[in-house]
Design goal:
416 residues; alpha/beta; Rossmann fold; 4 domains; four-stranded parallel sheet; binds iron/sulfur cluster
């Protein structure tokens, strides 16, 4: 695979006419007011690097890595400049120049490709967290996974289950009540080790919809590595998954993580046409469905057990801008019996979680989260629903931090 060269994208980067329309949509700019934090500033930085006016050194690290990759700027830009994609390419080149951090080598090369190892690491972190012996996990170096702001990461994740979701359910094929649909269930790392209630609800729903549900032995989809700029590690993870996902034993591949769904659908962009994985990645991505899409096709929903439930919805970046799933959640919520749906202002703005962004850029992520919480308060809803484990984790932290009496859950948990 060729080394990354951001100068190949010079024409695209130069399309920025400095109009500034991206400012209004950028959660980081709206929080800080700093030009370096908005698409226009980031593109100017890349242009300066390409033109040799700036060096690839640690000074450019912060402007490259404090982008949420939420994509809101592109949606507000007449030229539709894909700033988040360009930032990822620039991160890749930066890492090639300065080297990867050892913790990312451990995470992307040694843990994420192997679910069993990830489970062991998560268990060690859970034991440390749940018993207060965080020093043990810290001594093992495991907590560095959560970035430089670990102290806050410890607050953000309220509780780590000690047993992985995969270890609580039967792997392999489950019989369902559906007529003919054969489903492959892709369990993302977030559901596997943190938001397990979502996983249990999804599996029950899938068994209602599908004739069979095949719990897949997949590893991490590769999105964390890709976002970090470690494109090689991301491709390795994707190639590992492709060998499983290409099976003819299921008609659709469903995941209840909108970030995984978005990235799985994008697998073909990881492998150029000449690559041996390209065709396979196209066949696989065409069969991927976000759980929201599957729920949207359901003919009838069970009435809510609580007739007084008022619900609002947070649209994850990887669902709206990543997959174009904007109207589906609204339509589901409007059809759900016993639910009063109260739309959230700026519902598709990033919550600040952005994968592990809350762990690596705590202060900035909190400013973005506070804005989301202010909008949540205006709805008066007692349930905040979404479709991405990282959002669930971050929004749950926001609700606790702001002392709100709102429960955060996955849409599968509401619909089941
Ligand atoms: S909206 Fe697009 S063209 Fe305008 S300043 Fe932002 S990135 Fe540049
Ligand atoms: S991707 Fe999001 S955080 Fe990054 S520049 Fe665009 S709007 Fe701002």
């Amino acid at each position: 695979m060729d080394r990354t060269d951001i100068s190949k994208y010079y024409d695209e980067i130069s399309q920025c006419n400095r109009c500034g329309f991206c400012q209004v949509a950028c959660p980081i700019f709206r929080s800080t007011g700093h030009e370096a934090g908005v698409a226009r500033g980031r593109l100017a930085l890349l242009r300066a690097i390409i033109e040799g006016r700036l060096e690839w050194n640690q000074e450019v690290e912060e402007p490259l890595f404090d982008c949420l990759l939420c994509g809101a700027c592109t949606a507000n830009c007449f030229a539709a400049i894909p700033t988040s994609d360009l930032v990822i390419k620039a991160r890749a080149q930066y890492l090639e120049k300065v080297g990867r951090k050892s913790i990312h080598r451990l995470l992307f090369d040694q843990l994420l490709p192997y679910p069993r190892r990830l489970h062991l690491a998560a268990r060690a972190v859970a034991l440390g967290k749940n018993t207060g012996i965080t020093d043990l996990a810290r001594a093992l170096g495991l907590l560095k996974i959560f970035g430089r702001d670990f102290v806050h990461a410890n607050e953000i994740v309220e509780r780590f289950p000690t047993q992985a979701f995969r270890d609580q359910i039967k792997t392999g094929v489950h019989q369902g009540q559906g007529q003919s649909l054969r489903i492959g269930y892709f369990i993302g790392c977030g559901v596997d080790i943190i938001t397990q209630d979502a996983g249990h609800a999804t599996l029950r729903l899938l068994k209602k919809i599908g004739k069979t549900v095949n719990v897949l032995e997949n590893c991490c989809c590769g999105l964390p590595a890709w976002s970090y700029g470690d494109l090689k590690a991301a491709r390795k993870l994707a190639a590992r998954n492709l060998s499983i996902l290409v099976s003819e034993k299921f008609d659709v591949i469903v995941t209840d993580c909108s970030s995984c769904a978005s990235f799985l659908k994008n697998y073909p962009q990881l492998f150029p046409e000449a690559d041996k994985h390209h065709e396979k990645s196209q066949a696989v991505s065409a069969r991927v469905k976000d759980m929201v899409q599957l729920i949207h096709t359901m003919q009838a929903y069970a009435p809510s057990s609580d007739s007084a439930v008022t619900v609002t919805y947070h649209h994850p970046c990887h669902a709206t801008r990543g997959q174009g799933l904007a109207k589906e959640p609204d339509e589901i919520l409007n059809r759900l019996p016993g639910v009063e749906y109260r739309p959230l202002l700026e519902a598709d703005w990033c919550c600040g979680g952005a994968g592990s962004y809350g762990f690596s850029h705590y202060e900035l992520s909190q400013q973005v989260l506070d804005r989301k919480m202010d909008n949540l308060k205006k709805t008066g809803a007692n349930l905040l629903v979404t479709s991405c484990p990282a959002c669930i984790m971050h929004l749950s932290y926001g609700v606790r931090k702001h002392g709100l009496n709102t429960k955060v859950c996955h849409i599968s948990e509401l619909v089941i």
